[in-house]
Structures are given as structure tokens and as C-alpha cells.
């Protein structure tokens, strides 16, 4: 998904390729915020608590199943701004909010592999982009009901350079 965005948005690609590691990580975190791989996280309540949203209130008790809607949360205008659906790697987020939103979970269930996942993606994309890839066939976008997430199939790119350039991630 990140490669698809970078290849379809020349400005974002230029920013990615010109940026240092911190800038590239910020772009990847913003992309996974807007395009989370998993759409819902389901959790069981372990301690009673109350949720308040304006005038509405819900009392949750141990054992209740909570559906955390990652896509909706990651694009909440109150948290990420009126342009929450757009890609903005320099987006300011409130204290306590991760730049990737809930794409890697949160709290005790936060994915411990997030830094590695972002780093692996950054290394792959940095090395791939110096080969000057172009889209031959856009992917077919599908849906996986199990994780309420997208699938990409048959994404084809062609590399315009034969030999890898020296890249220092």
C-alpha cells in the first residue's frame, strides 16, 4: 500500500526520497494511519469503566466485548484535524496520540514489532525506489472480513534501472 501511494503521488515520493530516516518514518506512519491493515481491534473489558461522548454515556463491565474501529479512530477529525483523510507527515497530534493512530494497537496490546515493521518497510522502499519503479498494473483491492482489512493482489511494477545503486538507509 505504501509503494502504491508513493508511486501515484510524485510529491510524496519526492519527499520520501529526499527525506532523512526520520522523515521517511513519518511518511510511513502517516500512510499506515490512513490505510490501516486491520480495520477493527476487539478487546474484552477487564475492569468496569464508563465511556462518555458528549451527552452519551456507556457503562462497561468486565467481559464486555469492545470493537475498536481503527479506521474511524485514525481519521477522527477531533484528533487528526479536518484533513484527517489526507496524507500529511508533519501532522501535529495531541499528546498521548501515536502518529500511526491505532494501526499498531495501544496500551498493553500495542504491537511490540511496530518499530521493526516501519524500519523493514523503510529499508525495502528506499532500496526499491532507487530502481525507479513504475506501475505496470494497479493492484486489485479486496476485503478480508476476518480482520476487516484490505488485500492488494496482482500489483505489478517494472524497474527502470537494471543495477541497484548504492543506498545507505
Question: How would you summarize this macromolecular structure in one to three sentences?
Answer:
With 169 residues, the protein is α+β, with helices and mostly antiparallel strands. It is built from six helices and eight strands, in the order αααββββαααββββ. Helix 1 packs across helix 2 (10-18).
General description of the model:
With 169 residues, this protein is α+β, with helices and mostly antiparallel strands. Helices cover 33% and strands 23% of the residues. The chain is elongated.
Key attributes of the depicted protein:
two-stranded antiparallel sheet, alpha+beta
Distance between the termini: 20 Å
Strand content: 15-25%
The largest beta-sheet arranges its strands as: 1-4
Number of strands: 8
Average predicted local confidence, pLDDT: 92
Task: Give the SSE order as H and E letters.
Answer: HHHEEEEHHHEEEE
Percent of residues in helices comes to 25-40%
Summarize the SSE layout with pairings.
Elements: H1 2-8, H2 10-18, H3 21-34, E1 40-44, E2 49-53, E3 56-60, E4 65-69, H4 70-74, H5 77-80, H6 114-129, E5 133-137, E6 140-144, E7 149-153, E8 156-159
Antiparallel strand pairs: 1-4, 2-3, 5-8, 6-7
Helix pairs in contact: 1-2, 3-6
